[in-house]
Amino acid sequence: MTKTWFITGTSSGLGRLLTEKLLARGDTVAATLRKEGSLDDLKALYGDRLWIGLLDVTNTEQVHQVVDAAFGDLGHIDVLVSNAGYGLFGAAEEASDAQIERQIATNLTGSIQLIRAVLPHLRQQGGGRIVQLSSEGGQIAYPNFSLYHATKWGIEGFIESVAKEVAPFGIDCLIIEPGPTETNFAVGLDRAQPLACYEDTPAGEVRRALASGAFEIKGDAIKTVDAMIEAADAEKPPFRLALGSSAYTSISQVLSERLRVLEEQKEVTLSADRDS
Prior knowledge:
The protein is of the alpha/beta class. The protein contains 9 helices and 9 strands. The strands form 2 sheets. The chain has a 7-stranded parallel beta sheet, with helices on both faces. A two-stranded parallel sheet has the order 5-8. Belongs to the short-chain dehydrogenases/reductases (SDR) family.
């Protein structure tokens, strides 16, 4: 049975691959992007099965306009994929105010407003599915990605709550957490102006590893998209799906350590309750 999808950030990377694969199997895609013409080749191949909308997710008014237009034209959308985003690279102190505001407006506020705009339509049609692209960086943290992590941890918390709010309406949610994957993510990084004082710190180490190519990227983009589609197609998808061995190892280690620390502090934790 074919489906209709709404996907943001489709001009390149995982969003583009996802759009290509869904169209190739016969689905309909409402694809949004900021750069006009990026999907002209797919439009020529698939015609009316590809609906294209120009969208900057930091423009909330435009988000509502494009979402309303897509539902109006297509009638029913089965799956929303909130994919638009990028990474701000640099120690927290190095980033400019403008860079911080843009990172949060795109990755966090943009995703929040997109989902808010879609929810009334999904309720009215009797249900649907929300797929949020996060990252292993929604569970762990690397030096030099503090603002990026803030948005990914933030959007995961948002989805955790929203999923409970909208479940009674037949709307479910899926968070995708890929590890480092061979896409154009690194090329698209917004880089803060480095400060010399961080050269011999963990932030400097990550900077050098990324510059030299030593930062290991194990994830395969095509396999990642295939796994995303399979999960989104499932009758009962997992709430979270980590993808890639790097994501599995990193998230597993961090969660195990977090649980160990919690148990270690159990006595003092419980002591903070009121006396009965």
